[in-house]
Design goal:
The protein has 217 residues and is of the alpha/beta class. It is built from eleven helices and six strands. It folds into two domains: 134 residues, Response regulator (Rossmann fold), CATH 3.40.50.2300; 70 residues, Winged helix-like DNA-binding domain superfamily/Winged helix DNA-binding domain (Arc Repressor Mutant, subunit A).
């Protein structure tokens, strides 16, 4: 099994050292490079092509949100997880809009960071449990035009979209809806084609904007 190659981007050397130490104890993960700001991170991503970037938001020169947007645009196979002390929905939503696949608080449990890394490598999105409820609550009110946007989806597609946003796999979707895994995969592919969204993180962002996920999920 290939090791998960990770790049750390944080302007505090002690923070990077702590995360590196944590990751060194996890099976199948290795830190391939470290950056102290967003611009250096982009240069190192170009050189090392990591699977995952753990990116701080507040960095000099180029902040983590702008850097994440550039990674999403130019290195779509590299997943970005934002690391932050800020749990407000505004920061989380900005991170998702920038193209980040995950958002983890710096005071999260070590197991949560491992879970986040493995989730985004699978192509899933990940939000720290401490912030996900607040984010969903903030966007549960549908914006103007949401109904029209959702009209292009069939009821079944909306069901599948909500389950994807809640973190369900194709197998879990099939079990919940009483369909085959192949049919679930087909619904996911049709969703992406209809919405012109081509990754799971993008579907999650869309579902949040449209208010499909309740605050209790």
């Amino acid at each position: 099994m290939n090791r998960i190659r990770i790049l750390l981007a944080d302007d505090h050397a002690l923070v990077r050292a702590g995360i590196r130490s944590l990751l060194s104890d996890l099976a199948g993960m290795e830190v391939v490079a470290e950056a102290a700001d967003g611009r250096e991170a982009l240069q190192l991503i170009e050189r090392h092509r990591p699977d995952v970037v753990l990116m701080d938001i507040m960095m000099p020169g180029l902040n983590g949100l702008d850097a994440a947007a550039r990674v999403a645009a130019h290195h779509p196979d590299t997943r970005v997880i934002i690391l932050s002390m800020n749990a407000t929905e505004e920061y989380v939503y900005q991170a998702l809009r920038a193209g980040a696949s995950g958002y983890v608080l710096k005071d999260a449990r070590p197991a949560e960071l491992e879970e986040a890394v493995r989730a985004v490598v699978r192509g899933d999105a990940y939000l720290s449990s401490a912030v996900s409820r607040h984010v969903v609550a903030a966007f549960r009110q549908k914006p103007n035009g949401a109904a029209r946007s959702l009209d292009q989806l069939t009821p079944r597609q909306r069901e599948v979209l909500q389950l994807i946003a809640e973190g369900a796999s194709n197998k879990q979707i099939a079990q919940k809806l009483g369909i085959s895994v192949k049919t679930a995969e087909g619904h996911r592919a049709q969703l992406m084609q209809t919405l012109n969204i081509h990754d799971v993180a993008g579907l999650v962002r869309y579902a949040i904007r449209m208010g499909l996920v309740s605050a209790d999920d």
